[in-house]
Amino acid sequence: MKRLITPITEQDITDLRVGDMVLLSGKIYCGRDAVLPKICQLIEDEKLKEHDIDLEGSVIFHTAVSPAGVGPTSSNKLEIEGSFPILSKAGVKLHLGKGAIKKETIALLEDYNSVFAVIPPVTALLGENTISQRVAAFPELGMEAFYELEVKEYPVIIAAAHNESIY
Fold it and tell me: What is the rounded (10 degree) CA torsion for 52, 89, 164, 37?
């Protein structure tokens, strides 16, 4: 079992292999299909800092944040998987969700030394391992806003890294 603490370094990513089981801790961001295109637009407009968002060495968890907790959504939705290039270029090192992503996306992750990991849909466990949460951007989207969580030992499995995939 490997351990990662955000911010994630280039060397951390270089050392990961497909199938590695990882305990993830630190601050992570949460977003899904409603908000990730908006975050990509903030990046392109160079307005991310206005929301006190720093993506360098970060994690994006593909989820909404609701009173019921957090659980992964399908990462291969057009708006989510389509955000990988811009987010990776902006510094995201680990994209976290569920489902198979395209071979082209896996190759693109390699270009930015980023990886994709899957997380089991165990809302109760993730709730116990979530220390704090805040809305980082787009509060009008409610549970689909862009959230920042502080987490402790989220269990994840590296699903795509270095142009390889478990799928």
Answer: 70
